[in-house]
Specification:
The structure is a homodimer. By secondary structure, chain A is of the alpha/beta class. Chain A contains ten helices and 13 strands. Chain A is globular.
Chain lengths: 302, 302
């Protein structure tokens, strides 16, 4: 089955304590797509400017990502510039140029509308809703969001959340959305808004999945070298959704494995700038790291 | 086998967003002892003042904790006063009165010297060394420390660390001790100082165990109500060391289970002020929560 993703394709200029890149390929849609492509067919909806090189589009195509939904428009591609301090946990934004992304109105090609797994990356919740209006009969819809929308478009966000099955956000965003410091209570409050499943990304501390009946806690891969955390969240979502789609189901067991695959993909992504590590993986490397997660968390029951 | 612990017995005045207590029973030695007592015989070395009521000593005795090493001296008992903000992750100290603890020179009763499992709670590293001079042939020595000693007595601390098998500290302390922001690299550097095993406490994110050959990641119990985190670290260490002692071995499998027991005990402790929750537990309740950890982390391997 195919995964549909709507998000940004961008140029990132990033500085970390270990180096820097200028105008490197980035964007939520890009990270998600390449990550998911190791598990399933991916259909990408995004917009780029005239300055976007074919080289990047060819890289996406080489991962069998359908880019017929990537619109090229007059103007420049979305640009983000930021840096990370030594702890690498917080991105500091220096400059955001929306460019062609400012007028982005996602329009799905006809063949995208049958996609059964849908991921709405972190964009305006009104645009997320617009995408849902265009898909026919999705099996599972997941979305991301951020403090900017929680603070600025809470009503629209809540309307979108009523229509999604799974919300994938970070720790701080979950507490802010629920206005509740305790993460388990925050999760219960968010589930009451609409999504059946909440997945909380906790950076170097892993991920937590909460639904009505159960909680699953996954660690992060213990990396000795983290170069650049940019895109880790979308890479996580890509691995998770790609795996769910490849299974054609999202029962509890598959969901848990999907979260481990998501964590696995994110752990590769932060080992280099841009998609340098992500785009050169093999399924074998991925599965080996998945198995490491099993050893990492194993203990004998009583 | 018996566990020996050297630490503080204190009166804590604590305020959290959910309430407050004044001069409630606390101290690293107290939390550790009661927690460990659910698994093993415990020998406590500490000092209290004349103001320390028999009621508290009787509570310790009722948990079959040997208190012949608890010295009562002229003066007042150690007092700590602090508060927690809404996120409950950081303790803010308002007042510390060392009182009789200022001249504490741990002296082990004869029958304590054969204890095979030893825990040196967070006290002056020179006093920790003094305790090690008095034990005969310990099977496993673990210790705790804090930024105060890392910054003020680093040489003495390193000398103590050369003599211990296991260091149990929190996230920030590990990074500070190793002068390294990456936690896995920090762990390797600390292991080079002496301890074979490093256990990193991460509060609501669980614990990480690192030794030369393997890494184990344990989550925290997802609590909806956290009242007071005071003593969680020592309660964790108590559950862990008590379990190791009851097994008479600390092989990899037992260590991993011990960390889960430690996490289990800590999760109970933070549900109420002082030792209110900790001292009324049953082994059944403890084992039920242990088993929950198994469900919390379970996923099928490939």
């Amino acid at each position: 089955m195919s995964v549909l993703v709507v998000g940004s394709v961008a140029f990132d200029s990033v500085k970390t304590p270990f180096g820097e890149v200028k105008d490197a390929l980035g964007g939520s849609g890009t990270y998600f797509s390449v990550s998911a492509s190791y598990f399933a067919d991916v259909c990408l909806v995004a917009v780029v400017g005239e300055d976007f090189p074919d080289e990047h589009l060819n890289m996406l195509k080489s991962h069998k990502i359908d880019i017929s939904g990537v619109e090229k428009r007059p103007g420049k591609t979305f640009r983000w510039k930021g840096y990370y301090e030594f702890d690498l946990n917080t991105a500091h934004t220096l400059d955001t140029q929306l460019n062609v992304f400012a007028d982005f109105k996602p329009k799905l090609p006809e063949n995208y509308r049958d996609c059964e797994y849908v991921f709405l990356a972190n964009i305006d919740p009104e645009l997320q809703a617009l995408v849902l209006d265009q898909v026919k009969n999705p099996k599972l819809v997941a979305c991301d969001t951020m403090n900017f929308w929680i603070e600025g478009k809470l009503d629209a966000l809540k309307k979108t959340l009523e229509r999604v099955d799974m919300l994938i956000i970070n720790d701080g965003e979950a507490r802010e959305l629920a206005n509740e410091p305790n993460i388990v209570k925050a999760a219960r409050k968010i589930i009451d808004i609409g999504p059946k499943t909440l997945i909380i990304k906790r950076g170097e501390y892993g991920a937590l999945m909460v639904d009505k009946d159960s909680i699953f806690s996954a660690p992060a891969y213990p990396l000795e070298f983290v170069f650049d955390p940019t895109g880790a969240g979308d890479t996580f979502a890509g691995g998770l959704m790609g795996y769910l789609s490849s299974n054609g189901t999202a029962n509890e067991g598959v969901l848990r494995q999907g979260i481990i695959y998501g964590s696995t993909m994110a752990s590769f992504n932060v080992e280099d700038f841009s998609l340098n590590r992500l785009r050169t993986l093999s399924r074998d490397e991925i599965d080996t790291r998945f198995r490491f997660f099993k050893k990492l968390t194993h203990f004998e029951d009583l």
